[in-house]
Amino acid sequence: MKMNNLFKRLAVGVLLPSLLLLSACGSGQNESASADGIQERTIKAGIGNSKMHPQGKGMEKFKELVEEKSGGKMKVQNFFDATLGDDQKMTEALQGGLQEVTVPSTSPLVGMIKEFGIYDFPFVFNNEEEAYTVLDGTVGKKLLEKLPVHDLVGLGYWENGFRSLTNSKQPVKTAEDFKGLKLRTMQNEVHLDAFSKLGANPSPMAFSEVFTALETGTVDGQENPLATIQTQKYNEVQEYLSLTNHVYTPFVFLVSKKFWDDLSEQEQEIMSEAAQEAGKYQREVNQKENEKALKYLKKEGMKINEVEPEEMEKMKKAIQPVTDEYAQKFGPDLVEEMMNEVEKVREK
Ligand code: TK8
């Protein structure tokens, strides 16, 4: 009894006020709000790709912009190469308030928000402009609005981009060439089912495990945009690069909602503007670096092939049942809205 009372008093007298004090301070800052509404803060940001990848360059731009706009009060600490964990793990760290920012591919987030899977339908976008129209338009916004109930805030889309296939066995020129290939895919059911439909043996795997899996032959191949193939040095363990461009992957800029809710309006604006400005820059860099990467990979001796449009059409047909099935699951109206947006760009 006595202990109990003592504990209660301690709780009310010491623990409670210090807890209140802690939550008033929020995470990562040590000064109270100043006249301009900006406090000293440290923002821990992590991504899966390297500092040299366009995504890394985007993060460095974000850091520069936040620090500049906050007069040096808000600091961004960038962590690259999945040192804080892979996309799913970092997203969970944001939800728990242990990390402030991450920019994952949307694909591994489908376990949380299934509708993100509409971006995983192969051969939907023909070029970046079509993708930007959907992502920056009403469809893209609707999906970002699904984040806050999961303790996340989405500040827009960056670009991972069009994915192509590498493997150690053979050039992939036709739908038949996928048969029997052991492929790493992202942790995403649309990708898994689509590659299965083509006759490949796909297995889902976190990004940071891919190089070793390719090197040891656990899988024969993987698919990613060219800048990733270059910066992850997949060319050292893969002989063939087939320019399939089979699907476009966006990155989504995520902030921990716990952290976000603690920010002043001014601070939220700084984060939001910086994420968008850096995103614009990142998309430009990405397009340029993907072009450069193709030349680099050729020079490094990868055997590169294109895929004829009729063969692409056959691949698309083969996986149509998968797309149809998931369109039902994700919401036919949403899929229709996306396709209408794409059509509008095509008609221009
Ligand atoms: C990086 C990943 C990567 C993605 C993948 O964290 O997993 O293959 O393309 O860019 O998001």
UniProtKB/TrEMBL annotation:
<dbReference type="InterPro" id="IPR038404">
    <property type="entry name" value="TRAP_DctP_sf"/>
</dbReference>
<dbReference type="Pfam" id="PF03480">
    <property type="entry name" value="DctP"/>
</dbReference>
<dbReference type="GO" id="GO:0030288">
    <property type="term" value="C:outer membrane-bounded periplasmic space"/>
</dbReference>
<keyword id="KW-0175">Coiled coil</keyword>
<protein>
    <submittedName>
        <fullName>TRAP transporter substrate-binding protein</fullName>
    </submittedName>
</protein>
<keyword id="KW-0813">Transport</keyword>
<feature type="signal peptide">
    <location>
        <begin position="1"/>
        <end position="23"/>
    </location>
</feature>
<feature type="coiled-coil region">
    <location>
        <begin position="264"/>
        <end position="291"/>
    </location>
</feature>
<dbReference type="InterPro" id="IPR018389">
    <property type="entry name" value="DctP_fam"/>
</dbReference>
<dbReference type="GO" id="GO:0055085">
    <property type="term" value="P:transmembrane transport"/>
</dbReference>
<dbReference type="InterPro" id="IPR004682">
    <property type="entry name" value="TRAP_DctP"/>
</dbReference>
<keyword id="KW-0732">Signal</keyword>
<comment type="similarity">
    <text>Belongs to the bacterial solute-binding protein 7 family.</text>
</comment>
